[in-house]
Specification:
This protein has 429 residues and is mostly helical. The protein has helices at residues 2-6, 15-29, 32-42, 47-69, 81-92, 97-116, 120-126, 129-151, 170-187, 193-204, 232-236, 241-266, 278-295, 306-311, 317-329, 334-338, 342-357, 368-383, 387-404, 413-428; strands at residues 75-77, 154-157, 161-164, 300-302. The strands form two sheets. It has a two-stranded antiparallel ribbon with strand order 1-4. Helix 2 packs across helix 15 and helix 8 (129-151) packs parallel to helix 18 (368-383). It starts with a helix and ends with a helix.
Length: 429
């Protein structure tokens, strides 16, 4: 049955190798079951329901990728997108989290539509690589700022806006230790470096009275507070249009970057650069985003951490099945996950941010028409405290710089449209 469904021999792999690969992928991304509920809780979502929604969204989305596309790619609520959901949309724009979930659902529906209608290729190919890289780095910087705030390393100061926090604070010191441990273990290529860092930091807080455990296993928390609570009608209103577009654009770009990187590493990409079963992959990814909104979590997307499982030998969807089952198994460990304090998860946000910022190294800094818009996107995202604003700043800068440089004809129609929409959006704020 496994051979018939996953074509193991054709892909040169075995069940044991695939299961080990699935375990490896799970260990590298399992931090999300701890970090995501805490971020969503900041937006007013019930912590227990967010935990259950995170586990189910990751398990079902990954299972869809396994059975529809037969790829060793795992899905889960995306880092960066969850921060945008909680801190920019809900807390910053004062949009109810139910409406924000409606925006996530609509963005997934839009993603599904362009995948079925083959518009995706036009959109992806029309956006310059420099802007894609700027968006990725900007989200990383945004996530890093949030992580530093959670660690207590960065605090608000009237004179300078932000400044260094209290380094004598115990939770700040533990957070810093957790980040350094994650970084060191990652440098040694230890699977699950982030999860180990979170666990050690949490345990160090026990004798200090900063971490309190109420058990290790229990029935999964109720999903009722978030299940089907999305407000699609509210998201359709003009005030949420930019939110839907941002969720959509970032999800599409993130998905394509992950897909290209993982299929190339696994040797699944064709010689002409095309990806087999692309439509099935996109159906799984867009469906995962919609399902996540139904369950009550921010955008579910493909995880670049899947590359760790591919490095371990994963080549088929059987690896993803193993990952999905492990996420399901986590449902009974809710008390353990919810005991993890914020100072233990904040370093994980900074660590992931450091990985995302590295996207800027691929920007051609010898060409100002490409490098300046990319940098403006990244800087605009973190200093405006808004991914949507950063994207708008980047696209407007790209058009302006290329027009002044006499390269207006090189600007694609999609970039003109997004830049114009961004100008209108800024004018209406």
């Amino acid at each position: 049955m496994l051979e018939r469904v996953f074509h193991l021999q054709e892909n040169g792999t075995r069940p044991a190798t695939e299961i080990l690969a699935g375990l490896t992928t799970f260990l590298t991304m399992s931090y999300i079951i701890v970090v995501n509920p805490q971020i969503l809780a900041a937006a007013g979502i019930d912590h227990g329901a967010a935990f259950t929604a995170t586990c189910l969204a990751a398990a079902l989305g990954t299972l869809a990728m396994a059975l529809l596309a037969n790829y060793p790619i795992a899905l889960a609520p995306g880092m960066g997108l969850n921060a945008y959901f909680a801190f920019t949309v809900v807390l910053g724009m004062q949009i109810p989290w139910q409406v924000a979930l409606g925006a996530v659902f609509l963005s997934g529906l839009l993603f599904l539509a362009i995948s079925v209608l083959h518009i995706r290729e036009w959109l992806i190919n029309s956006i310059p690589l420099s802007l894609k890289l700027g968006i990725a780095a900007g989200i990383g910087l945004f996530l890093g700022l949030l992580g530093f705030q959670g660690m207590g390393l960065v605090v608000a100061k009237p004179a300078t806006m932000i400044g260094l926090g209290d380094l004598e604070k115990t939770t700040t010191l533990l957070s810093a230790l957790g980040f350094l441990l994650m970084a060191g273990l990652s440098a040694r290529k230890v699977p699950g470096a982030i999860l180990i860092g979170i666990a050690v930091t949490t345990l160090l807080g026990v004798p200090l009275g900063l971490t309190k455990f109420d058990g290790f296993v229990a029935l999964p928390p109720s999903l009722a507070p978030t299940f089907l609570q999305m407000d699609i009608a509210g998201a359709v209103k003009l005030g949420a249009v930019s939110v839907v577009f941002t969720f959509f654009l970032v999800d599409v770009l993130d998905n394509m970057g992950t897909l290209i990187a993982t299929t190339f590493r696994a040797g699944l990409m064709r010689k002409d650069g095309t990806v087999p079963r692309l439509r099935e992959v996109l159906l799984a990814d867009s469906g995962g985003a919609m399902l996540g909104a139904v369950l009550g979590t921010s955008t579910t997307t493909s995880y670049i951490e899947s590359a760790a499982g591919i490095q371990a030998g994963g080549r088929t969807g059987l690896a993803s099945v193993a990952t999905a089952l492990l996420f399901l198994a986590c449902l009974v460990f809710a008390p353990l996950a919810m005991a993890v304090p914020a100072f233990a998860t904040a370093p994980a946000m900074v660590f992931v941010a450091c990985l995302m910022v590295s996207a800027l190294r691929a920007v051609d800094f010898d060409d100002p028409c490409e490098s300046l818009p990319a940098a403006a996107t990244a800087l605009g995202t973190v200093f405006s405290f808004s991914i949507a604003s950063g994207i708008g700043i980047g696209f407007i800068t790209y058009v302006a710089v290329n027009v002044v440089a006499g390269r207006a004809r090189s600007v694609s129609g999609a970039v003109w449209i997004i830049a114009f929409a961004s100008v209108v959006s800024f004018a209406l704020e």
